[in-house]
Design a protein that fits this description.
Blueprint: H1 13-23, E1 30-31, H2 48-60, H3 73-84, H4 89-93, E2 95-101, H5 102-115, E3 122-127, H6 131-139, E4 143-148, E5 150-151, E6 156-157, H7 159-166, E7 174-178, H8 191-204, E8 207-212, H9 221-224, H10 226-234, E9 238-243, E10 255-261, H11 266-282, H12 289-299, H13 301-332, H14 339-343, E11 348-350, H15 355-365, E12 367-368, E13 374-376, H16 385-392
Parallel strand pairs: 1-12, 3-4, 3-7, 7-8, 8-9
Antiparallel strand pairs: 2-10, 5-6, 9-10, 11-13
């Protein structure tokens, strides 16, 4: 027999907690694990612009036939403009865009394309980083290395250590950089640090893969893509993995894109055909429903304006929850500096608790968070913030 050689694999760290939460019968349970946006009612809503674009799509479509290998033209063009902004024609002319099954699909396609060009087969990830970066990059056959990023004891970036490590990474290495709203820390480099990072990448000939999963939910659509736009103007080549899960709320539709920027316009067609070939051998082509919805939003001025307003609403709610949670913790512990929670960006923060403390909170308080003490800020509710602060603050340092 062959299949009986396979062994049961423990559940994914985050998805396993989601299953445990669903099985928990306590009426007081609180879920701060999975990274989905929740409104003031604790629901993950369908955005109004998305609902209207989808309504129009369903009413008008007459076929479910295959789309071209690169995907929906209006979606790809809109994503390029959303990410790169009003770049000069030189950058646009050397940028290939392929539609992918979410940001995860974009990351995997980029990793496979990199493997076709390199004998190093190594990727550098921040420490810490989003858990599935390891799974996606490892499944592509890349060896995983780390660069310093964040000190959980001080709640600050390890800037000097990070820059030192980057300055010693071999040329032509692949490095994953989260462009904004870093997962799991919520701590992003400032403009000066980003400039130094790009300087090193340019000097050493490193290939960056920017992960842009939360554009618009940090400081704004343009602000969150600023480092990508600066890099595109300076660097000869780079990847950008884009997700529409958060800023369009299309989690289950698996909607994303990969931007591959080559050194000159002659590389664009090469990158497009390579990306399509990688996709063909992996998932053939990505789902169309989500990209068609997003294309409808990009192409209609009124829907686009509605979507922009909704992104502002979501970002404002997240920032407000950060401030309220930081204040609630400070109310519990006057000796505790919680300003870092209020000042960070995006959906996540690391509380700095031990795995044992996280397990105890889950077992005794029915409070669910990832075992590294990452919490989804967007999962907080005003009605429960004080309750959460009351059990978390005594454990923080």
């Amino acid at each position: 027999m062959t299949l009986d050689k396979l062994k049961e694999i423990p559940p994914d760290a985050i998805l396993g907690l989601m299953t445990a939460y669903q099985a928990d019968e306590s009426p007081d349970k609180i879920d701060l694990t999975v990274g989905v946006y929740k409104d003031s009612q604790g629901k993950t809503p369908v955005m109004r612009a998305v609902a209207e674009s989808e309504r129009r799509l369903v009413a008008a479509q007459t076929s479910k036939a295959y789309l071209p290998p690169l995907g929906v033209a209006g979606f790809r063009d809109g994503i390029r403009k959303m990410v790169l902004g009003p770049v000069d024609g030189a950058v646009e002319s050397r940028t290939a865009v392929i539609q992918t099954p979410g940001g995860c699909g974009a990351l995997r396609v980029a990793a496979d394309m990199y493997r076709r060009t390199s004998t190093e087969d190594v990727v550098y990830l921040s420490n810490p980083t989003w858990g599935n970066h390891r799974g996606l990059m490892g499944a592509a056959g890349l060896a995983l290395e780390e660069y310093p990023y964040y000190n959980p004891a001080t709640h600050e970036l390890e800037v000097d250590e990070m820059l030192d490590k980057l300055s010693r990474i071999p040329p032509q290495s692949l490095i994953v950089l989260q462009a904004s709203s870093h997962n799991p820390t919520g701590e992003d480099p400032d403009a000066d640090t980003w400039k130094q990072v790009i300087d090193i990448i340019e000097e050493r000939g490193i290939l960056p893969l920017f992960d842009l999963a939360y554009q618009g939910l940090g400081d704004g659509l343009d602000e969150d893509a600023a480092v990508i736009r600066a890099a595109a103007e300076r660097l000869p080549e780079m990847f950008v993995a884009v997700s529409c899960s958060k800023n369009f709320g299309l989690y289950r539709e698996r909607t994303g894109a990969l931007l591959a920027i080559g050194k000159d316009p002659s590389q664009k067609k090469v990158l497009e055909t390579q990306a399509a070939n990688v996709a063909r051998g992996c998932y053939s082509m990505s789902p169309a429903h989500g990209p068609l919805i997003v294309a409808g939003i990009f192409e209609d001025p009124e829907l686009h304006k509605l979507w922009l307003d909704e992104v502002v609403e979501m970002r404002g709610r997240i920032q407000g929850l950060r401030k309220n949670f930081a204040q609630a913790l400070a109310n519990e512990r006057s000796d505790l500096d919680t300003t870092w929670i209020a000042e960070q960006r995006g959906m996540f923060s690391l509380l700095g608790l031990t795995q044992s403390e996280v397990d105890t909170l889950r077992e005794e308080q029915h409070l669910y968070m990832v075992r590294d003490s990452r919490i989804n800020i967007a999962g907080l509710q005003d009605s429960s913030i004080e309750q959460i602060a009351g059990v978390v603050a005594p454990l923080m340092s």
